[in-house]
């Protein structure tokens, strides 16, 4: 024992004589300074996380190298010299003079003490914590094929759906958190940007029928990991794994998580769940004919694999109705209504079902029932932004603009990065006649989704309502540049029609009809652009009849569809079917209950029937409800009307002090 003690003491004396303590102390101080500087500057420079890991690895590997060099060499006033052995010193060798003196040791000791104090104070002064607000970031796909990102996104969204049902948690919406994918922000910047206290990160590794989900909860204030766990199981157990993760997070956040019965919404079929996630991924993007067809196919595949999969049934209901909303094909409306009714009967307690039913009820002219459906969805998921946005649309249809604005602002508060909600806010401002506010909201929608044509269409509508046809045309052209579609060409055609450039209008409407042959709106616009050209009434007749047939089919689906009824009356009047047109007008009931667009169409029908006083009555009501007088003033169909006494009185009551001239609108 004595020999061991003597040997250890000798080793310590050698470390001191060879100045290893001094060198290693300086190395530790320098390494700590490098890490602190790296922590500050790497994130702003956009450096990936592995750079810091490389620096730490270099520091650890370099320690034994520095130790060995300090043992063998000294830094002297004469340069780097090999350290003298004890035998050489005993033989009378003159010791070399080291660079620096005792003060270097004192500086190193002081620096080490300061570092130790800093670490202790930092650890005691701040402890990682989890607040009541959280953002679920997009999970990484670690599968070998790297083709399962939709699946990883679906897992993250499913966890969001569960956490959204907790009243005590403020959850950043999917659009906001997913918008930061690949932004290169560190945890603290991400939490600050999303306005949350905690972040959930994760990764998904899918291998055959096995699934591994790794998760970690991060304190957004310090970037420190608070909790982490890995969950593994068969792909058929994916809902149970999601349940375990959600409950674990709720436990860390110290809230009670009340989940719906998993047996009601889950599937044990891996193929069904995969197809459901693919369909949901398609619905998340911009709705086009192709994306909706793919969504329908994926949801159908999921239900073929598992007919009792509630989420897939709700997804198919919604995709079918969005198809009808986009294409206005009555057969698609029948498919959507059948599917949604079946889904509601089988899975009435699912929030997704109620949202889809609410959308269908809105489209079939039942805003009161739609409002009830969206409220039922919110009773199940109070933090569901889609349900708040749907409720806003229902309230807008009921002319409760103030309540509609409150609901859409609530949706924006929960999901500020989703362009559609800003677009809906712009629509509410538009109907309230607040065009400046509508313009600002539409511009925000464009900033959030610059490649999306829909906000450009809305911006064009705002300009058009103000009689600024040139600016409207520019907005519509930008929409066509983003994605050539029927609505964009139709809007451009409308602009040319009001500018009295009828041939250009016809060309635009013809292109719109080619892209959406089942949409009667485009066919109707084409008919008017042809009819307005001298000597071409006969060429317009087939298009007028096509609109009448479609309106008849729409009324068979929804007898309260006043838009379809007024359109039918207008085109029957254009075809000199006066008795049938008058009958359709009678079916509209009390004009005071109609919205401004239906009233405008009704006014044109009365005008073509020669009932100028009734036409003025309808136009008066439409203007009182928000229809800009400049649109009537610029409409080529009313070019000869303003010499009439009743129309002159209408102009006197509502005349725009700065009317749009034909030259300005071209």
UniProtKB/TrEMBL annotation:
Keywords from the named record: Membrane, Repeat, TPR repeat, Transmembrane, Transmembrane helix
Domain of life: Bacteria
PROSITE patterns named in the record: TPR (PS50005)
TPR repeats by residue range: 351-384, 385-418, 419-452, 486-519
Residues annotated as transmembrane: 20-38, 50-73, 103-121
InterPro entries associated with the record: TPR-like_helical_dom_sf (IPR011990), TPR_rpt (IPR019734), Ycf3/AcsC/BcsC/TPR_MFPF (IPR051685)
Pfam families linked: TPR_16, TPR_8
PANTHER family assigned to the protein according to its UniProt record, in alphabetical order: CELLULOSE SYNTHASE OPERON PROTEIN C (PTHR44943), TPR REPEAT-CONTAINING PROTEIN MJ0263 (PTHR44943:SF8)
Protein's name in the database: Tetratricopeptide repeat protein
């Amino acid at each position: 024992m004595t020999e061991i003690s003597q040997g250890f003491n000798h080793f310590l004396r050698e470390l001191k004589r060879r100045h290893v303590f001094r060198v290693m102390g300086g190395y530790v101080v320098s390494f700590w300074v490098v890490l602190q500087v790296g922590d500050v500057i790497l994130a702003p420079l956009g450096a990936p996380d592995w750079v810091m890991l490389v620096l730490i690895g270099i520091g650890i590997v370099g320690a034994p190298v520095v130790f060995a060099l300090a043992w063998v060499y000294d830094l002297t006033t004469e340069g780097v010299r090999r350290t003298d052995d004890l035998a050489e010193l005993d033989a009378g060798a003159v010791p070399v003079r080291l660079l620096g003196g005792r003060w270097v040791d004192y500086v190193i000791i002081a620096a080490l003490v300061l570092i130790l104090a800093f670490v202790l104070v930092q650890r005691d002064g701040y402890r990682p914590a989890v607040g009541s607000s959280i953002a679920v970031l997009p999970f990484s796909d670690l599968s070998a094929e790297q083709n399962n990102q939709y699946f990883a996104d679906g897992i993250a969204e499913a966890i969001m759906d569960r956490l959204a049902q907790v009243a005590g948690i403020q959850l950043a919406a999917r659009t906001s958190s997913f918008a930061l994918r690949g932004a290169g922000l560190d945890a603290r910047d991400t939490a600050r940007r999303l306005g949350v206290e905690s972040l959930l990160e994760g990764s998904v590794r899918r291998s055959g029928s096995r699934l591994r989900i790794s998760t970690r909860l991060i304190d957004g204030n310090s970037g420190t990991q608070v909790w982490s766990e890995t969950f593994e199981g068969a792909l058929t157990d994916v809902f149970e794994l999601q349940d375990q993760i959600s409950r674990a997070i709720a436990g860390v956040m110290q809230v009670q998580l009340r989940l719906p019965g998993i047996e009601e919404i889950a599937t044990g079929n891996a193929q069904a769940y995969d197809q459901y996630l693919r369909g949901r991924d398609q619905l998340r993007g911009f709705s086009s004919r192709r994306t909706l067809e793919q969504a329908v196919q994926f949801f159908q595949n999921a239900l073929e694999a598992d007919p009792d999969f509630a989420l897939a049934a709700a997804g198919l209901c919604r995709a079918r109705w969005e198809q009808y909303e986009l294409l206005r094909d009555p057969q698609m409306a029948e498919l959507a209504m059948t599917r949604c009714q079946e889904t509601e009967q089988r899975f009435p307690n699912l929030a997704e079902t109620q949202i889809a039913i609410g959308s269908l009820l809105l489209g079939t002219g039942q805003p009161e029932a739609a409002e009830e459906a969206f409220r039922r969805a919110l009773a199940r998921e109070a933090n569901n932004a889609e349900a708040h946005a749907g409720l806003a649309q229902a309230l807008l249809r009921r002319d409760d603009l103030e309540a509609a604005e409150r609901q859409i602002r609530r949706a924006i508060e929960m999901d500020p990065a989703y362009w559609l909600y800003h677009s809906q806010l712009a629509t509410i401002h538009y109907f309230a006649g607040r065009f400046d506010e509508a313009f600002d909201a539409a511009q925000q929608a464009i900033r959030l989704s610059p490649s999306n044509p829909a906000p450009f269409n809305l911006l064009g509508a705002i300009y058009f309502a103000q009689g600024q046809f040139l600016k409207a045309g520019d907005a519509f052209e930008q929409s066509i540049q983003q994605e050539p579609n029927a609505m964009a060409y139709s809007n451009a055609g409308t602009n040319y029609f009001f500018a009295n450039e009828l041939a250009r209008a016809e060309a635009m409407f013809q292109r719109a009809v080619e892209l959406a042959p089942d949409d009667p709106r485009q066919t109707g616009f084409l008919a008017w652009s042809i009819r307005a050209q001298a000597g071409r009434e006969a060429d317009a007749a087939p298009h007028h009849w096509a609109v009448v047939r479609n309106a008849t089919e729409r009324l068979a689906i929804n007898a309260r569809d006043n838009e379809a009824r007024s359109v039918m009356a207008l085109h029957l009047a254009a075809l000199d079917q006066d008795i049938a047109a008058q009958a359709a007008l009678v079916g509209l009931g009390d004009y005071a209950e109609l919205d401004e667009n239906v009233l405008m169409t009704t006014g044109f029908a009365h005008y073509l029937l020669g009932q100028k006083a009734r036409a003025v009555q309808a136009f008066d009501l439409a203007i009182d409800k928000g229809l800009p007088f400049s649109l009537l003033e610029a409409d080529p169909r009313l070019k000869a009307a303003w010499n009439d006494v009743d129309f002159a009185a209408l102009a006197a009551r509502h005349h725009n002090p700065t009317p749009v001239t034909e030259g300005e609108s071209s």
